[in-house]
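Title: Prediction job returns without error message
Component: structure pipeline
Severity: low
Priority: P3
Assignee: unassigned

Description:
Job completed but the reporter wants confirmation the result is attached to the right record. Sequence as submitted:
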Amino acid sequence: MKNSDPNNIPHSDPKMVTPYTHQTQQGPTKDWVEAEHDIGSPAGGAISTAEDLVKFADALRSGKLVSKATFEKMVQSHGKPSFGGDYGYAMEIEKMYGETVVGHGGGFPGVNTHLYLILGSNYTVVTLANQDPPAADFASQRVLSMVVEKAKQEK
């Protein structure tokens, strides 16, 4: 994962996207404006690429990052969050077409992302958006449903 960073030191890179938001200090606006560049914190703000997030998902599945037993515990429900669904250890858990999909997302004005792993398959869906949340969720739902259906058919 050579293109990922905790983003805890302000820097710029010509390969980084510009975040756009409808939020301003004066309140919401209908126009897109460049968002403040977030600095990473324990709550998030790291930067990455889709390719690196797929590598991260592969490392979770294969036991390279955590043991397979630990990953199994991560993807089991350990509670119900206020936003609905199930939650494991750092993993949102949902059922789609009878298949289990796990992952996590996040956002900040001007950036939004979601990582989905379809359990029982090698499929991963990564959505990165340089717009306000829930842009990544909206963008990924159709793709995710098609990939889950494909994984289901391959069983």
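Comment from assignee: result matches the submitted record. Strands lie at 20-24, 27-34, 86-87, 92-96, 99-108, 111-118, 124-129.
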